[in-house]
Amino acid sequence: MSKRVTKITKQDIIDILQSPEMQQSKNYVQHGSVSVYSHSVAVAEHSYKMAKSLEKLGIMFNLKSLVRGALLHDFFQYDWHDDWDLLHGWKHPRLALKNAHKQFNLTMRERDIIRKHMWPMTLLNFPTCREAWLVCFADKYCSLLETFKIYKYDYHEKEGVLS
Ligand SMILES: [Fe+2]
Ligand SMILES: [Fe+2]
Questions:
Q1: Ligand number nearest to the C-alpha of 41
Q2: Are 125 and 117 in contact (CB under 8 A)?
Q3: Ligand 1 center–CA 117 separation, angstroms
Q4: Is 158 part of any domain?
Q5: 73 CA to middle of ligand 2, Å?
Q6: Does 5 map to a domain?
Q7: DSSP conformational letter for 25
Q8: Ligand 2 center to 142 CA (angstroms)
Q9: The domain that contains 61 carries what CATH number?
Q10: Which ligand neighbours the alpha carbon of 80 most closely?
């Protein structure tokens, strides 16, 4: 079992935030008027905050894997609204994992987070670590906020997450 990393700094995520692919994702819509970039950072930030709250109850997380996996959970470089694909929701976790795997050294937890975040849509691919369960939940929570336009974030200019 790998060691849980319970502290994280900007240095742990800057390679992802500054990658050309992440920067490019500012141009693609995720929900409503929220870009894939903003959505991904929002999911990472919400996951991080929820994990910090749960830590007070003694439930510990590998924060570095949690945040890195959350940032990469939708790591695909296209606007899924352009060529409407009914199966996008089902297909993109596998694609995001493939893309992320090419660019970054992923831990088992990060792989689990990316591949399983659309559960229960991906029926048999259910999260197998608590970090993946948390991101799976945070993704749905942020998606709801964005779909109903009740979010209060825009991460295009600031990097969010640990701020
Ligand atoms: Fe997704
Ligand atoms: Fe997402």
A1: 2
A2: no
A3: 6
A4: no
A5: 6
A6: no
A7: G
A8: 8
A9: 1.10.3210.10
A10: 1
Q: Looking up tokens 């795997």, which residue turns up? A: 101
What is the DSSP annotation of 138-156? Answer: HHHHHHHHHHTT------S
Nearest ligand to the C-alpha atom of residue 96: 1
User: Ligand 2 centroid to 48 CA: how many Å?
Assistant: 15
Tell me which H or E stretch contains 35: strand 34-35
Residue 1, domain member (yes or no): no
Instruction: Determine how many CB atoms are found less than 10 A away from the CB of residue 152.
Output: 6
Residue 136 within a domain: yes
Distance 25 CA to ligand 2 centre (A): 12
| Total number of domains constituting the chain | 1
- Tens-binned pLDDT, residue by residue, of the chain (163 aa): 455 666 788 899 999 999 999 999 999 988 888 999 999 999 999 999 999 999 999 999 999 999 999 999 999 987 888 877 888 899 999 999 999 999 999 999 999 999 999 999 998 899 999 999 999 999 999 999 999 999 888 787 665 565 5
Whether the model clears a pTM of 0.85, i.e. scores above it, the answer is: yes
State residue 85's pLDDT score. 80
* Owning domain of residue 92: 10-147
Q: Which of 142, 102, 157, 97 is CA-nearest to residue 122? A: 97
